[in-house]
Design brief:
8 strands, 70 residues, mainly beta, 4-stranded antiparallel β-sheet
């Protein structure tokens, strides 16, 4: 099992995956807004999305788990 972690705190402006989706290494899964910039968060490994732990509009802290892959 692998987790996609927020590299910095910010606001979730887009969730590009849902549970059951297949993602490849390097695919964008979440878009964060931090310091007035859009920051794509990518999957570091290929797998299937088991759980999305954030929603569009959520404020997240640095190191927060955003997506769980299996």
């Amino acid at each position: 099992m692998s987790e996609v972690i927020a590299p910095m705190g910010g606001k979730v402006i887009d969730v590009k995956v849902k549970a059951g989706d297949t993602v490849n290494e390097g695919d964008e899964v979440i878009i964060l807004e931090a310091m007035k910039m859009e920051l794509p968060v990518v999957a570091e490994v290929s797998g299937t999305v088991k759980e999305v732990k954030c929603n569009k509009g959520d404020a997240v802290e640095a190191e927060a788990v955003l997506v769980v892959l299996e």
